[in-house]
Write a structure and sequence with these properties.
four-stranded mixed β-sheet
Length: about 190
């Protein structure tokens, strides 16, 4: 591994704002590249294969697991697999860019363990579980049951926040973006 092969991980419970912060940073810094995750779920809305996710069947995903093709993978919800392919990180590094991984908490811990000297990990924390509930409810995409499942999962994920390099409380998106930006610039400036 070359010193230039760094990885930035942004992780958080669903609804904490990690995707908004990731999008902000990617728009501002062309040196950063979105690491496209593999997923076994169907595309939502305008999501595109090879841009938002690598959509694949459960069978194909399991074949990749057997071939040891993933840096990390998880069955995030029953029958729904997500993961980061090793070839995706290599694709970004070969372009001279730094991959930004917008992934779940367990996956983020796995990546850190495999690349301990190359990663910067940022945990985006919601101001409170109540605020998180409001944000998720406001999306209008959750049933009462799925909302409760996400809240329970979020509370569990928050318990792992100290496993990461920095915790950013997202009570103000602009402030959280600025904080993430400063940490990333400092990390990228290191030799």
């Amino acid at each position: 591994m070359q010193q230039s092969e760094k990885i930035i991980i942004i992780t958080a419970p669903s609804g904490a704002g990690k995707t908004s912060i990731t999008r902000y940073l990617l728009q501002k810094y062309p040196k950063l590249a979105f690491s496209i995750s593999a997923a076994t779920r169907s595309p939502r809305g305008k999501e595109e294969n090879g841009k938002d996710y690598y959509f694949m069947s459960v069978e194909k995903f399991r074949n990749h697991i057997q071939q040891n093709d993933f840096v990390e993978w998880e069955m995030v919800y029953e029958g729904k697999y997500y993961g980061t392919l090793k070839k995706e990180l290599n694709r970004i590094w070969e372009k001279g860019q730094t991959p930004m991984l917008d992934i779940d908490v367990k996956g983020a811990i796995h990546v850190q363990q495999q690349y301990p000297d190359q990663t910067l990990s940022l945990f985006i924390e919601p101001p409170s579980v109540d605020e998180l509930r409001k944000r998720l409810f406001g999306r209008g995409t959750e049933t009462d049951e799925s909302l409760q499942a996400r809240i329970n999962k979020a509370a569990y994920e928050i318990s792992f926040k100290h496993h990461f390099d920095h915790i950013i409380v997202n009570d103000n998106l602009e402030k959280a973006c600025a904080e993430a930006e400063q940490l990333i610039l400092k990390f990228l400036a290191r030799g």
